[in-house]
TrEMBL record:
Keywords: Amino-acid transport, ATP-binding, Nucleotide-binding, Transport. This is ABC transporter ATP-binding protein. Belongs to the ABC transporter superfamily. It comes from the Bacteria. GO terms for molecular function: ATP binding; ATP hydrolysis activity; branched-chain amino acid transmembrane transporter activity. Residues 7-239 form the ABC transporter domain. PANTHER family: HIGH-AFFINITY BRANCHED-CHAIN AMINO ACID TRANSPORT ATP-BINDING PROTEIN LIVF. One of its GO terms (biological process) is L-amino acid transport. The keyword Transport applies.
Length: 242
């Protein structure tokens, strides 16, 4: 942990029409950390991820990334600062092959590292190498999730945003994906901000975490603190994740 803040979200309010989806959110992510945001469905977690990426834009508050104010910046310029997102629902290009999907993820300035980066992704997710010439739409859910993360990594991000990476996947696949995230963080120092409904898996992986309820952060602490917190256990960890 360098203790140097990479992402600072302060007092952020986001609206859909007249409906306030985020009600003054404060979170920060330091360089080299894995930070997770847990909460029930509809709590505003994905909205925060999308607001960081500029669509929708925050109506109030500020978002500072690596010293740059990105609050009012258009999405494509935010991406250029090397924030990459693996969005909820994966959203890979179904008609394109695995390789073409990875090409879409590479930024123009990272094309010179293209082969090296592809190898790195194939080492992380060997399944993608086997499926390299297969269309994205024919992959299993787990393989699509690997591809979505791989595509985001092709941009050589300083910050990787992961929105619900375990959604709809079998526990064994989830374990593999979380192990890959941990490996990227430990071996490459990649900073990760993770939105996840599987609170148990997220908190075990994370240095720090925030709990969101109705568009507000209601609690924060280290992953370990929140794992043992009785309120968090009762709300998010009951039901077999032990």
């Amino acid at each position: 942990m360098s203790g140097e803040t990479l992402l600072k979200v302060q007092g952020v309010e986001t609206y859909y029409g007249n409906i306030r989806a985020l009600a003054g959110v404060d979170v920060h992510v330091d360089k080299g950390e894995i930070v997770s945001l847990i909460g029930a469905n509809g709590a505003g977690k994905s909205t925060l991820m999308m607001t960081i990426c500029g669509a929708p834009q925050a109506r109030n508050g500020s978002i500072i990334f690596d010293g740059t104010d990105i609050t009012r910046m258009p999405t494509h310029l935010i991406a250029r600062l090397r924030i990459a997102q693996s969005p909820e629902g994966r959203r890979i290009f179904g008609r394109m092959t695995v390789m073409e999907n990875l090409q879409m993820g590479a930024g123009l300035d990272s094309m010179k590292y293209f082969n090296e980066d592809v190898e790195r992704i194939f080492t992380l997710f060997p399944r993608l190498k086997e499926r390299m010439n297969q269309r994205g739409g024919t992959l299993s859910g787990g393989e699509q999730q690997m591809l979505s993360i791989g595509r985001a990594l092709m941009a050589r991000p300083k910050l990787l945003l992961l929105d619900e990476p375990s959604l709809g996947l079998a526990p064994l696949i989830v374990k593999g994906i979380f192990a890959a995230i941990k490996k990227l963080n430990q071996e490459e120092g990649l900073t990760v901000f993770l939105v996840e409904q599987n609170a148990f898996a997220a908190l075990k992986l994370s240095d720090r975490a925030y709990v969101m309820v109705n568009g507000k952060v209601t609690m924060s602490g280290s992953g370990r603190e929140l794992l043992t917190n009785p309120e968090v256990r009762a709300a998010y960890l009951e039901g077999g994740h032990h």
